[in-house]
Amino acid sequence: MKVIKIGGGCLKGEAVVSSIVALIIQRGRGNVFVLSALSGITDKLMNGIEIAMADEDNIPSLVDEIRREHLGLARHLIASETDLKALEEEFEPHFLKIERYFFGISFTREATPRMQDIIVSYGERLSVILMAKVLKSHGEDAHYIMPRDAGIITDGRFADATANMPITSKNMQKNVLPMMTERTILFVPGFFGISETGEVTTFGRGGSDYSAAVVAAAMKADILEIWKDTEGFMTADPRNIPEAKLISILSYEEASELAYSGASILHPRTVEPVRKSGINIAIKNTLNPDGPGSLITEQAVHDKNVIKSISHSMDIAVLKVYASGVGLRQGILAHIAGTLAKAGINIKSVVTSQTCISLLLSRKDIERAHRVILEVKPRLFRESEQVTDTALISVVGDGLHNHRGIAARCFTAVSQVDVNIEMISFGPSKAALYFLVHETDLEKTMAALHSQFV
């Protein structure tokens, strides 16, 4: 049995979704599908929270727009008026609940994390209902099951939940496995689970990859397939490096590092649930389903150049905190990190010296983070600054730390194109070397590194 995840990029527009339906009919029997929301729906639900708080008169039209999008797609995919009418009747209670939640936050003028998670979870709920009914109208033995009924249990953290794998595995073996036959097509919504107290908790943006891995591990699947509209992991982003090549095999570690540092193929947390089970992850292109794609395995396959890929992220900023004897002063790093954590700000990485702590953050968080630490009393540092004009580059290959000269080759290649490296991290990961450059130097840095190693 496979667990197959289909992302929102593959659920966009009548023609694309029609091709996905045909592919499921051709290759999906006997398998579990974890779905994202239709393309753009999660954003509409999130934006709808702000719209509803601003003016309740906008709520009916907002909900009607989401209703029309789903029903319009259904009318294209379902020929039977009887089946279409049944779908409309099944949809309507969900649209009414969305509307009720929007009116609730409009009345209270507050969107709590709990309420936000409930509202945004409806994109995936509507998606599985739609696809199950479409496949059933084509004569398939198609069903859906919601996380509450499946027993996907989380730690209860809103917007950043983690699955409780022992309980979830036990529940899914009991509640889901008996539903499966060699002809069954079962749809499960991605992106969210249920806490032990019964609350809807989401896995964060892009979390449907992670929830698919949770389902695969819990169901003891043979393989986890991620259906995308791209071939798989590449040696670099083709938009930056047109000659980039497909990576056919890479390790869990390599895939995680690439996902963390900017490759949008996979959510960084996807590997977590399947690592213990040794379940492989296959990236497959829905536009070329017989193509090789990328296979992610437990064991690394080493290339002659060691390096598999050069990846990058522009979503990076540095908060620099200057203080004398940082390494000798107890608790300063913990105090700063704890203060940011309390403010809900994620720290991507930390690089320290004796005079400076450099915190790597998302660009969207940098200004607020700077304000937060300036308000700390007593102040444990003498000055601080924010740097936002940088780009993060990662050189990824499992075992690179065991090969002499990798760092030297990187820095030589970069210096030959007259680029200054602003910060380096080498050693914490067995599969990646990270450094920062000025954002205007990104293109030539990428090109120099790719030509050196790939």
Describe what you observe in this structure.
The chain is an alpha/beta fold and 454 residues long. It has a domain at 2-229: Acetylglutamate kinase-like (Carbamate kinase), CATH 3.40.1160.10. It is built from 15 helices and 19 strands. It has helices at residues 14-27, 41-54, 59-77, 81-108, 113-120, 122-137, 147-150, 165-175, 208-218, 252-260, 271-275, 332-342, 363-374, 406-416, 442-453, and strands at residues 2-6, 31-35, 141-144, 153-154, 184-189, 192-195, 200-202, 223-228, 249-251, 280-285, 294-297, 309-313, 317-322, 349-352, 356-361, 383-387, 390-396, 423-426, 432-438. The strands form 4 sheets. The protein has an 8-stranded mixed sheet with strand order 3-5-2-1-8-10-11-9, with helices on both faces. Strands 12-17-19-18 form a 4-stranded antiparallel sheet, with helices on both faces. Strands 14-15-13-16 form a 4-stranded antiparallel sheet, with helices on one face. Strand 1 (2-6), helix 1 and strand 2 (31-35) form a beta-alpha-beta unit. Helix 14 (406-416) crosses helix 15. The longest helix has 28 residues, at 81-108. The protein is globular. The model has no long low-confidence stretch (mean pLDDT 93).
Short characterization:
GO terms for molecular function: aspartate kinase activity; ATP binding. The protein has 454 residues and is of the alpha/beta class. It has a domain at 2-229: Acetylglutamate kinase-like (Carbamate kinase).
